[in-house]
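INFO  loader      accepted 1 record
INFO  loader      residues=478
INFO  predictor   begin
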Amino acid sequence: MLPSEQHSFRREPHGEEPRGQERWIEYLTGVRTAKPSYYSAFRRREADLSRTIASLRDISVALCATTGGAEAVAQAVLAAAANHFGSDEAMMCLFGERAQWVGSTWLAWRWGTVSKEVQAGVPATAVAQRAMASGSVVFWEAGSATSKDIDPLSSDAACYLGVPMGSSRPAEGAMVVAVADGSADGTDIAVMGVLANQALVALDNARLFQQAQRERNAAEAGREAAREMSRRLRRRNLELSRARAELSKAEEERILAEERHRLAAELHDSVAQHLAGISLAVQWCMRTLPEDSPVHDRLWEANEMAKTALSRARGTIFELSCLSQGAEGLEEELAEVATVLAHHLEVSLHLEPGLARRLSAGQAHGLFHVAQEGLFNAAFHSAGSHATMSLRAIRRVVELRVQDDGCGKAEELNALLWPDSGLPRHRGLGSIRNWSARLGGEVRYEAGAEGGVALALKFPLRTENTTPTRKAGSGEDE
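INFO  predictor   done
INFO  writer      dumping tokens
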């Protein structure tokens, strides 16, 4: 504001010109005299301005402490007020929610330490209560007329300045600071008033900031919980999809297993039984004819064809059983073969418990063919009455042994099994040799300890589930 806007100056007479200069100096510098004491007054004014500017800087920093919470703001404001007056004591009184935010109705700053324990009745508390009640500035000085109703007790300070916080009456709080030298001009009071009012705003901002932080953290937690729930739902949906696919596959496998079981039962009860009956009837006819008879040779061929067909039928039955029951059906199928041959040969089975479950489907299938052929040869070619079949595994090597008490010779059978050139003429021996090769094992006939011969097969135990397939259009197993 220009001087002409605040005061009406008139040109002084020539003799009064110095008075006009003093007015301009007073307005520009704030110093009322231009006498020799002018410089010292100017220096004091400069020091006061520098102190005020430094205090404003401290106050601005204190009011920016909202991120630390309401209590941190209150402590910073008290420290800034005490530093402005060069005091060792400052106090703040709050009511309502703000007192809850800070944690106490009274907050005292003494010698750099903040305390929530304030002694009632001391001048500082009395000045704060009076400033709140009146809503105006209260300046208390020990021994003055305005201090008669306030007991100084043992206060170290001679003067206290109290300012209300807020514009309402009674005020929402008050700030009190001890004035060490007993001097507080208008600038100091204005600074305290601004600091007190802005402290309320800063406390509210700190509260809002903390509330916003909590809401933000809650939102982040909710967002993370939503993400986790989304991930869990995706995993559950994936698991449900897999379970649904597995159930569908299990239902398909159940239907296929039931159909395979039905086909295997029909083959066993009709085709296999009839082929076995045909073979037995042909063998009876062969025994009634001389060996050099042409009919005997034709019957021998018919018997071989019946046996081959029966072997193929039983192989198919076992394959269907393996597909529906796994390799565990091996023991049942071998027992069934022994039952079919009971009219011609007494068969004793010695099978290692649980071994069938350790075999793959392909191994069980091949083992069944070799064992079946060995029992058929013992029943129809050895002229024996008893056979023993044993199955065991030693150090991951499966051993099958079919021992009879007939009249066979191991050397002759090995010569037929492993001829010098070509394949064996006997279809049964050829089947034994082929299945042994597919199992990756070794097979040969050995002389029995009490007569007869023993078919011995050894092959490595593998656990992979490989089911034999058939060559397209040939009817032969691969």
